[in-house]
Design goal:
single chain, alpha+beta, Alpha-Beta Plaits, 3-stranded antiparallel beta sheet, 2 helices, globular
């Protein structure tokens, strides 16, 4: 599981993970997007336990673009 800042970021992360063949979803306690201020604690991106290491590696690669 990872925590991201917003529903949009979660949707992008889930899309990326699914495009890599992983089962992923997100959980946001924001009344279906109607109350975005409720996202103050972040939005959880979840994957199957057996996919967690791969998902963390994929998401970490987004934060580290590598050498320029």
């Amino acid at each position: 599981m990872a925590i991201v800042r917003s529903r949009i970021e979660a949707e992008l992360a889930v899309g990326l993970l699914r495009s890599q063949g992983l089962r992923a979803a997100f959980i946001a306690d924001d009344v279906g997007g109607q109350e975005p201020q409720l996202q103050q604690d972040g939005v959880r991106v979840i994957v199957a336990p057996e996919d967690e290491a791969t998902a963390r590696r994929i998401l970490a690669d987004l934060d580290d673009p590598g050498p320029e």
